[in-house]
Design a protein that fits this description.
Elements lengths: L1 H4 L3 H22 L8 H25 L1 H7 L10 H22 L3 H18 L10 H26 L6 H25 L1 H7 L14 H22 L2 H20 L3 E3 L9 E3 L2 H19 L3 H11 L2 H16 L1
Parallel strand pairs: 1-2
Helix pairs in contact: 2-3, 2-7, 2-12, 3-5, 3-6, 3-7, 4-9, 6-7, 7-8, 8-10, 11-12, 11-14, 12-13
């Protein structure tokens, strides 16, 4: 468990992996392909993305050691020797190359997978370190964490099931992933804004007053929602409609009974809040897809149970908040 702490896995395990898996589930549903024969492929894709996420967490912490010390922030990689840092990064790179070997000769998927590593290296590592170069840092993070992994999973599954490359599906998935990723990194930068100012880290958020960002918040979220609506138009069914209704009920419960403010990117300090659509992507959307796949194909229920075992946190939290309504009755 201590080794896992060095990877900051709690910060990305559900938040980054579940939306990517949902893209995979949606791609299978789009092509009416049974999930059971694809489970090993999904596990391989998941493991490949996890290796990349570990690499990103490690190099980001290593690059931030000096700045985190100035800001008084805890940095996990600062607690281990330089030799072990080199070993950990080297093991990640070796694992990434091995994954690339098994992805080949699917050149398109290999390109998307490699680009996720490249852009995140440019984001974190000096002398380029685009993290400190305003909008370029935002784009690198969004592309590395969401855009390229989402396209990698889409491309790999379409190749695996030998389906036609649906260009509109790629476009809708890519735009949604990019703008969802932009919201994620902007939330993080605004949340960490005071520490970045203290340490002299010139991120995009440290250069702008939060109150001047409201119009851009709305624009980013609107594009994300339009792209996601386009994605849903390919696979929309009764269960997805029900999942949207249940999510809106959860938003209302949190607003009405738990005093959660509804936010798009910038969140209040020390006050309950919810980022709009986050819980839909993390809970309701993937579960509605798995439920549909389970109805249509045998053994899908096992995959649904496995998903809940691997990613229980946000689902249990949503259930806990829904129980508030039942207690009020």
């Amino acid at each position: 468990m201590k080794l896992l702490e060095f990877t900051r896995f709690s910060e990305w395990w559900e938040y980054k992996l579940v939306p990517l898996l949902a893209v995979g589930y949606a791609t299978l549903l789009l092509n009416n392909y049974p999930i059971a024969p694809a489970i090993l492929k999904l596990l391989f894709l998941l493991s490949a993305v996890i290796i990349g996420a570990v690499y990103v967490s490690v190099i980001n912490d290593i690059s931030d050691i000096t700045e985190d010390a100035i800001a008084g922030k805890n940095n996990r990689m600062a607690r281990i020797s330089p030799l072990w840092r080199i070993i950990i990064v080297s093991l990640c790179l070796i694992a990434g190359v091995i994954n690339g070997y098994f992805i080949y000769p699917d050149r398109l998927s290999l390109y998307f997978y490699s680009m996720a590593w490249v852009v995140f290296s440019l984001y974190s590592l000096p002398p380029v370190r685009l993290k400190k170069r305003g909008i370029w840092g935002l784009l690198c993070d969004a592309m590395g964490a969401h855009l390229f992994p989402a396209l990698f999973i889409t491309s790999s599954l379409l190749e695996f099931i030998q389906a036609d490359k649906n260009v509109l599906w790629y476009i809708a998935t890519g735009i949604w992933a990019l703008f969802y990723g932009l919201r994620g990194i902007l939330w993080h930068q605004f949340y960490d804004r005071d520490n970045d100012i203290k340490s002299g880290t010139t991120t995009f958020a440290s250069r702008i007053q939060p109150e001047l960002f409201k119009a851009r918040e709305i624009l980013i979220f609107s594009i994300e929602l339009i792209a996601f609506s386009g994605l849903l138009s390919f696979i929309f069914n009764l269960w997805i409609a029900c999942s949207i209704g249940l999510y809106l009920l959860l938003v209302w419960i949190r607003k009405r009974y738990l005093n959660h403010s509804i936010c798009l990117i910038i969140t209040p300090v020390n006050s309950p809040h919810q980022l709009l659509m986050n819980d839909y992507y993390l809970v309701f959307f993937p579960l509605s897809l798995l439920f549909t796949l389970s109805l249509n194909h045998p053994y899908g229920w096992l995959v649904l149970c496995g998903h809940l075992l691997l990613f229980p946190r946000k689902t249990l939290l949503a259930l806990k908040d829904v129980m508030v309504l039942l207690k009020k009755r």
